[in-house]
Each structure stands twice: as C-alpha cells, then as structure tokens.
C-alpha cells in the first residue's frame, strides 16, 4: 500500500483526503496546509494527521498529492520530485508551460511518475463512449457554469475550458495547426466567456465555448466522424451514439433509412452505452496507484497536461492580438 500525503486542505483538498482515506490502494499519512487555522480545523474535524511543513510531509510518504493553488504547483512538485516522490497534481499542471516542462524534466531525471487531475477523462459518460470515438473530424463543446467568485482570478480558459481541451487532445491524434479565439470580460478582470476554434493538421476542427456567467450549468460535447455521431453529457453523465451503416435491401418496418442525393441509402441506429456509476476523483487517484505499482503509464501524463496548458495559453494569446 502506497503512503500518500496531501498538500492543501481547501475545498478540493478535503475531498482528496476523504477519498484517499477510504481507498484500499493508499495509506493516508496526513496533510499540510499553510493556513494554520484551516489546518487545525481540518485535523480536529476529521482526525487526519497535520504536518507542520511541506518537507516533513514529503519525507513521510511515497506519493504527494498536490491540491494547492496553481501558483504553488511548481514549487511543491519540484520539492517532492527532488525527494524521489511520485506526484499527483490537480489541474492545471502549473502556472506556465515553462514550469510544466521543467516538472517533466525533473520527473524523468529522478525516475518518478506523475499524473494530473484532468478528471473528465474519468467521467463515466466519457469512459462509456470513448471507444466509439474514432478519428472525429468535427467536435463541439459547451461548458457553461453559473457565476462563482472562486476561480475568477484566472481566465475562464484555465478555469473551465481546459477540461475540454484535454479531452479533445486525448481523442484527436494530430498536431494543432491553427487556433482562433475570442474572450470577453463581463464581471471579472479576466475573460468570463470564451470561444475557440482549434484546427488540427489532419483536418479536424474543434469549436469550444466556455462561460462562467451562465444562467444554467452545462457540460456537453459532441463528436462527429464518418458514419457516427457521439454525444457526451459530462454533467448528467449520459451519452448517446448514433451510427450509420449501409441500408439493407429490404428495410424493416421500423428501420430508419436516409437516402442522399447520389441515391446511397444509409440506415441509422442508436446505441446507448451502459454508464457505470463511479467516483471520478477516486478513480483517477487509484489508477495512479496502479501505474506506480505496475510501472505503467498514468492515464493523464505530465506531457498530456502540459499540451493542454500550452493550447490553453495559445487560446488566451488570441484575446490580446
């Protein structure tokens, strides 16, 4: 069983602490939080061991779970890696692409594994459909959220859209060719709503919209490819796969058949994959334990997260041009 410690005991940090404490793949050793009042409250309420310094916690564990503000990700990761500890980092991996690249280099130098908390990869609706997503050529995503002051210190691209950027990069196996984007600051000092168009070298186009000033929450993605359309609702955790195949010579009474201008007939049929209930955060943490124990590649690698961050900053750069 891997000994793990958590850096940061805020809203998400407490979730990580609870899940790691119930996991049979980890032994939760304790946590560190620089806010002494909050640390004392968490220790008293939940009984987790509180460490006085980051260094002391790192020395006591095999894995360091970094759930601190993004600005401190790099320093925390650097110290943990230098001590030979595996690292799990909440998204985004770091504040800058340069920091992310240095984290990758340090992890390779010290022979440790790293995974980043792009949790939508473990969303059960996406897990149920990703095997059907094969060479998509058009992708449309909408990630809309009601206003919440928490997270408004960064552009909505880093706050929300980066989830969809990571998912898209995981299914489009082609380099990015061109990016166009626009963003508007409505309430915050940084853009609250943004739209981006990502063109890939293989011809795929992805159109992403993210907003944190919407009247309702929405997290939907649609993937279009030859003879198939896949819809994934990350919020309600439902999905639908619509496929087309050559129509039979004698269609049944209830077969849905379309005929194009050239006279080609296609039959439409629907698949509703079984969506298995899960806890996505627990799954991502436990698959990281598996990667360490089996010496395999983590599901969301440091490189994956760095590419998502790189694309996010390319989108943000469009706002200033």
TrEMBL record:
<feature type="domain" description="GFO/IDH/MocA-like oxidoreductase">
    <location>
        <begin position="155"/>
        <end position="216"/>
    </location>
</feature>
<dbReference type="InterPro" id="IPR000683">
    <property type="entry name" value="Gfo/Idh/MocA-like_OxRdtase_N"/>
</dbReference>
<dbReference type="GO" id="GO:0000166">
    <property type="term" value="F:nucleotide binding"/>
</dbReference>
<dbReference type="InterPro" id="IPR036291">
    <property type="entry name" value="NAD(P)-bd_dom_sf"/>
</dbReference>
<dbReference type="InterPro" id="IPR055170">
    <property type="entry name" value="GFO_IDH_MocA-like_dom"/>
</dbReference>
<feature type="domain" description="Gfo/Idh/MocA-like oxidoreductase N-terminal">
    <location>
        <begin position="2"/>
        <end position="118"/>
    </location>
</feature>
<dbReference type="Pfam" id="PF01408">
    <property type="entry name" value="GFO_IDH_MocA"/>
</dbReference>
<protein>
    <submittedName>
        <fullName>Oxidoreductase</fullName>
    </submittedName>
</protein>
<dbReference type="Pfam" id="PF22725">
    <property type="entry name" value="GFO_IDH_MocA_C3"/>
</dbReference>
<dbReference type="InterPro" id="IPR051450">
    <property type="entry name" value="Gfo/Idh/MocA_Oxidoreductases"/>
</dbReference>
């Amino acid at each position: 069983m891997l000994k793990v410690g958590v850096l940061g005991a805020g809203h998400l940090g407490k979730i990580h602490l609870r899940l790691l404490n119930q996991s049979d793949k980890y032994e939760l050793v304790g946590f560190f939080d620089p806010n002494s009042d909050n640390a004392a409250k968490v220790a008293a309420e939940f009984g987790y061991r509180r460490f006085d310094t980051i260094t002391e916690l790192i020395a006591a564990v095999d894995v360091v779970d970094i759930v601190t503000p993004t600005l401190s990700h790099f320093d925390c990761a650097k110290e943990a890696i230098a001590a030979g500890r595996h690292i799990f980092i909440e998204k985004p991996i770091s504040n800058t692409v340069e920091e992310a690249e240095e984290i990758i280099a340090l992890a390779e130098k010290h022979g440790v594994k790293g995974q980043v908390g792009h949790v939508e990869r473990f969303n059960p609706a996406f897990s149920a459909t990703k095997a059907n997503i094969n060479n998509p050529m058009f992708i449309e995503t909408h990630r809309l959220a009601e206003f919440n002051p928490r997270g408004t210190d960064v552009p909505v691209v880093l706050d929300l859209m980066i989830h969809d950027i990571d998912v898209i990069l995981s299914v489009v196996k082609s380099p990015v060719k061109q990016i166009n984007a626009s963003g508007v600051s409505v309430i915050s000092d940084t853009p609250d709503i943004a739209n981006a168009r990502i063109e890939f070298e293989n011809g795929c186009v992805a159109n992403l919209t993210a907003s944190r000033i919407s009247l309702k929450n929405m997290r939907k993605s649609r993937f279009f490819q030859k003879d198939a359309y896949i819809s994934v609702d990350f919020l309600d955790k439902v999905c639908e796969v619509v496929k087309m195949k050559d129509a039979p010579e004698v269609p049944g009474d209830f077969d849905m058949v379309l005929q194009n201008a050239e006279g080609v007939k296609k039959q439409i049929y629907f698949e509703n994959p079984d969506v298995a209930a899960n806890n996505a955060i627990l799954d991502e943490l436990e698959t990281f334990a598996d990667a360490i124990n089996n010496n395999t590649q983590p599901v969301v690698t440091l490189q994956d997260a760095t590419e998502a961050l790189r694309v996010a900053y390319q989108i943000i750069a469009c706002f200033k041009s």
